[in-house]
Design goal:
Largest sheet: 3 strands, antiparallel
Number of helices: 2
Strand order of the largest sheet: 1-2-3
Oligomer: single chain
Distance between the termini: 32 Å
Radius of gyration: 13 Å
Number of strands: 3
Order of helices and strands: HEEEH
Strand content: 25-35%
Shape: globular
Length: about 80
C-alpha cells in the first residue's frame, strides 16, 4: 500500500469519475491498523443497495493530515464537475 503522499491524483480523479458515471457515491473512511499507522480507504457505494466497493487505499501516520488530503481530493473532484 502506498503512502498517501505518493498517490497519483490524476488516476484517483479518473476512478472517482468512473464510479460516479456508474451512479455510485464516493466516500472515504479512515482506520488505525496497527496502532500508529493510519489507512484511508476510498470507496463507492450504490445509493440503492448500499453495496460498498473499496477502490483505493493509502497509508500514513498523521490522521489529521490524511483527512485533509482525502477531503481535498473529493473537493477537487466535485468542484471540477461544476466548472
Amino acid at each position: 500500500m502506498k503512502p498517501f503522499e505518493q498517490a497519483n491524483p490524476r488516476l484517483l480523479q479518473q476512478m472517482f469519475h468512473w464510479k460516479k458515471a456508474q451512479g455510485e457515491w464516493i466516500r472515504f473512511e479512515m482506520v488505525e491498523d496497527p496502532p500508529g499507522k493510519w489507512i484511508v480507504h476510498f470507496f463507492s457505494e450504490d445509493h440503492i443497495t448500499r453495496d460498498r466497493h473499496v477502490f483505493a487505499s493509502f497509508s500514513g501516520k498523521d490522521p489529521e493530515e490524511m483527512k485533509r488530503w482525502a477531503l481535498m481530493q473529493l473537493a477537487r473532484f466535485n468542484m471540477g464537475d461544476t466548472i
